[in-house]
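Students often ask why we bother encoding 3D structure as a string. The short answer is that it lets us treat folding as translation between two languages. Here is a chain of 102 residues written in the first language.
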Amino acid sequence: MIFVSKIFNKIEKSDSNYQKFFDYIFNRIETDLRELGYGDMSVNKKMKVVVTKFYSILLDFKNFIQISESTRHIIIRKYFKDIRKIDDFCEFLINYLSIDYV
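And here it is in the second language, the structure alphabet:
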């Protein structure tokens, strides 16, 4: 998602493909919840949580390159707590997110 988000940040937000992409992602999540057996009420509650967390993550990573390296490590550790070699992973992800794709 971060890779795609980086590309879409370079595209006009009014581009219909931008909205189609996000609609697809959330429709896919909803479908997967329904396939797991959740009903309408449960799906609605869970989707609210998913959407809130998703936008929280996007906001954290939005200005990732402009923030200090120590803050970058804090953000990465927040979302990837269970990774064994977290320091190596932090360096990998920081380098990956520094690449300009478009």
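Translate back mentally: Residues 40-62 form the longest helix (23 residues). Keep this in mind for the problem set.
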